[in-house]
Design a protein that fits this description.
By secondary structure, the protein is of the alpha+beta class. The chain contains twelve helices and 13 strands. About 10% of the residues have low confidence.
C-alpha cells in the first residue's frame, strides 16, 4: 500500500508540473507537447520506481562525497513491522491498520474493474455487428492508402456505419474504424484520417491506462482530473497532427465537420465511450478545440522531448519518499508475549544488506565503562562517539552505510547521586554516524555516579 501511495504522490506531482506548465505557456505551444507530458503523468501513476532511489544515492555520493543529505526522522510506531518466529507471524498495530485499508481499497478497485470490463464487453458486442460484413475493394484501397501515409503497420478494418453513427475507432491490436460517411466523399477522408492518427499513436491503449489509473487511485481526485484532461488533450493534439501542413480552407472545412458532429452528439445525447476514440466532441469543449486549431503554433519534437525528459527527471526525485525495508530475525522459541512486547518498543536492529549475519562481530561487554556522553557508541578499537535519541529512526538518504560493530551505552544520572548504565550490542555507520541499537547486554547501577 505504501508503494501505491508513493506512486500516487509521483503522479500527482507530475500532474502539478503539467498544470503549472499549461498555466505559464497557455495555448502558445502545441497540444502535442501537453499530450506527451500527460502520458508521462499516466506512467508515474502506474509504475513504482524504488530502484531509482539507490541509483540517485550512488550518484550523489559520487558527485558530493563529503556532503550528507539532511536526515528524515520516521517513528518506528508508524512503520510496518512483521516478526517471523518459527511458524508464527506477528504484526504491529500499524501493519494491522494498513491491512484493513488495503482490503477497503481492494474492494472498491475490484468493483470499478468489474464495471470497466462490463462496459468493454457491451461495446465489443456492438462492434461485432459491424464486423460481420467484409470490406469492399474500394474500402480496402482507400484504407491502404491512408495506412501508407501514416505508416500504420497493424491490420485495420473499415466498416460502413449506419446513419447517425459517429466515426469512431475500437480496439488496439486489430482496430476497427466505423464511418457513416460515403467513402468517396471528402468528409469520410477527413474522418478516417483523424482515426488513423489515433491508431498510429495507440490512443485507445493510453485511454485504457488512464482508466486503470483511476481504478488504482480512485481515492485521489487528481487522478480523475488527469483522466478528463487526457481526453481533451488527446483530441486537440490529434487535430493538430491531421491538419499539419494544411491550408486555411482545409482547416475551416475540418472545423465545420467537428461542429456538425458535436451538434449531432448534443441532439442524440450520445457520449464518448471508454474503449473507443472518436471524431466528435461535446459542445462545451468545442470552442477551445476550435481556438486551439485556428492558432498557428510551432512544433519541434526534439525540444519537446528534452522538456518532457527534464520534467520527468525533476519529478523522479519523489523516489526518495520510498521507505527503506528492514528485516528482523528472532529466535524460534520466542513467546507470543515477548513478540508483542517487542513490537511496542522503539528499538530494533537488522542485518544490513550484503552483510552475513554470522560474520558480524559484536563488542563483548567490558568490565570498565568509560562514560563521556549520556548516549554513546564504543567501537572495537575503543573509540567513543555520541549518538542521537533512539526514539526515532534517522535514515540518511544519500549514505551507503558502512557499519562498524560495537556497543551502545545509555547513561542516566539520578538526583540522589546514583546512576544507571544500560549497555547494548550496536552498530554504527562510520560514514554518517547512524547507530543501530540491538539487544541489551547488561544494566549496571552505581550508588554513587563515578562518571
Amino acid at each position: 500500500m505504501e508503494y501505491l501511495l508513493i506512486m500516487s504522490l509521483s503522479g500527482s506531482t507530475m500532474m502539478g508540473l503539467y498544470l503549472l506548465l499549461k498555466h505559464l505557456l497557455k495555448d502558445n505551444v502545441c497540444s502535442r507537447l501537453y499530450y506527451l507530458i500527460i502520458k508521462e503523468v499516466v506512467l508515474f501513476f502506474l509504475i513504482p520506481l524504488p530502484f531509482l532511489k539507490d541509483w540517485y544515492r550512488k550518484m550523489i555520493r559520487m558527485i558530493m562525497p563529503e556532503v550528507q543529505v539532511k536526515g528524515v526522522e520516521i517513528p518506528v510506531a508508524w512503520t510496518k513491522y512483521v516478526v517471523h518466529a518459527g511458524e508464527e507471524t506477528y504484526f504491529n498495530t500499524y501493519a494491522i491498520v494498513q491491512t484493513i485499508v488495503v482490503v477497503i481499497w481492494l474492494l472498491i478497485a475490484c468493483t470499478l474493474m468489474v464495471r470497466m470490463f462490463f462496459k468493454y464487453f457491451r461495446i465489443r458486442q456492438a462492434i461485432l455487428e459491424y464486423k460481420g460484413t467484409e470490406m469492399t475493394e474500394k474500402q480496402r484501397s482507400f484504407l491502404a492508402e491512408l495506412k501508407r501515409q501514416y505508416e500504420v503497420k497493424r491490420p485495420v478494418i473499415l466498416c460502413q456505419g449506419r446513419d447517425g453513427d459517429h466515426t469512431m475507432t475500437f480496439g488496439v491490436c486489430r482496430p476497427v474504424i466505423i464511418c457513416d460517411k460515403d467513402i468517396d466523399g471528402r468528409e469520410a477522408e477527413i474522418h478516417v484520417r483523424h482515426e488513423m492518427v489515433h491508431i498510429k499513436r495507440l490512443d485507445a491503449l493510453w485511454k485504457i491506462l488512464t482508466r486503470l489509473v483511476v481504478i488504482l487511485h480512485w481515492w485521489n481526485p487528481i487522478a480523475w482530473k488527469m483522466r478528463r484532461e487526457f481526453e481533451r488533450v488527446c483530441e486537440y493534439s490529434c487535430d493538430e497532427t491531421v491538419m499539419q501542413g494544411r491550408t486555411r480552407e482545409e482547416v475551416k472545412e475540418y472545423l465545420r465537420l467537428l461542429i456538425d458532429e458535436a451538434c449531432i452528439e448534443s441532439e442524440t445525447g450520445t457520449t464518448s465511450m471508454l474503449w473507443q476514440s472518436g471524431f466528435a466532441d461535446d459542445m462545451e469543449n468545442m470552442k477551445e478545440r476550435i481556438r486551439n486549431l485556428m492558432k498557428t503554433k510551432k512544433w519541434n519534437r526534439y525540444v519537446a522531448g528534452m522538456l518532457a525528459a527534464m520534467l520527468a527527471f525533476a519529478n523522479s526525485m519523489t523516489v526518495f519518499a520510498y521507505r527503506d525495508t528492514y528485516h528482523q530475525e528472532v529466535p524460534v522459541n520466542i513467546s507470543q508475549e515477548e513478540v508483542m512486547e517487542y513490537l511496542q518498543t522503539d528499538d530494533f536492529s537488522f542485518t544490513p544488506d550484503g552483510v552475513d549475519g554470522q560474520e558480524m562481530r559484536y563488542l563483548e561487554p567490558s568490565d570498565e565503562m568509560k562514560i563521556i556522553y549520556e548516549k554513546q557508541f564504543v567501537d572495537t578499537e575503543g573509540n567513543i562517539y555520541p549518538y542521537s535519541d533512539e526514539e526515532t529512526v534517522t535514515t540518511y538518504r544519500s549514505c551507503n552505510h558502512n557499519y562498524v560493530s560495537g556497543t551502545a551505552n545509555d547513561h542516566t544520572k539520578y538526583s540522589d547521586g546514583s546512576c544507571k548504565v544500560i549497555e547494548y550490542r550496536a552498530q554504527r555507520c562510520d560514514i554518517c554516524g547512524y547507530v543501530i541499537r540491538g539487544e541489551r547486554i547488561r544494566t549496571v547501577t552505581y550508588d554513587v555516579c563515578p562518571h
